């Protein structure tokens, strides 16, 4: 009985500590993309749509019809607090290393994860979300909903502005941003539909004024019950160019509201494009031989 009491007290103290840290961090939350104040007086003569078009082109968007699929291998680290606050969304004991296949038309995201708990397989298309753990399909509604959200977000993170082709977004300018003495355009739009099960989400892009590369993606997460009202940004720390397309290859994600915490850092260990994959090549738990080949080794993704 005494041992049980000590254990319960220990868990209670731990949970109180987590809540205390979260409460402290609430004061550091930043403005959501949904509530950004638009800049209607920018005097440089550059419209928000021009800024998007420039970064879209810089990433290779003018040749997007030549990009059929992107295939990556990923490694990364989760920050502890986010795994406690969002255990189902992070699913961090499975989502540690992965082989990911992105097909652009029709939009398809398929993943095989490996982690300390085992393997997880995901298939996400416009109308379908399928998940299996250790090759056993799950039909749990919360798991499917959380996976739909993270899959759609990672489709965007992986492709950057290329993922927004055909979305007909009404871009508007925000005040410019600065980081480490570097200046960035910021533009904002509402996405319909949003991520996962959301009817709409808001997105802000940070675009480097010198290179026109997208530096940061900031999004709301209305598509899952425990992330409603939350917003996160993902910063691109490094890029690579393949056949005229520029892809981010090192990523750092933060939760910015309703609390502010570091969430996830990941980097590519492999990347290649244009295997001529179709949706049937990446069906759940049954990838074709050309889909199953590991992504071509890439050793320079993680910044020193």
Short description:
The protein is an alpha+beta fold. The chain has helices at 2-26, 48-58, 80-85, 87-90, 141-159, 289-292, and strands at 69-78, 97-103, 108-115, 118-125, 129-133, 136-138, 172-179, 182-191, 201-208, 214-220, 231-242, 245-257, 261-273, 282-283, 286-287.
Overview of the structural elements:
With 304 residues, the protein is α+β, with helices and mostly antiparallel strands. The chain has 6 helices and 15 strands. Strands 6-5-4-3-2-1-13-12-11-10-9-8-7 form a 13-stranded antiparallel beta sheet. The longest helix is centred in the N-terminal third of the chain and has 25 residues, at 2-26. The model is unreliable at 1-27 (pLDDT under 50).
Name some characteristics of this structure:
globular; single chain; 304 residues; 13-stranded antiparallel β-sheet; alpha+beta; two-stranded antiparallel sheet
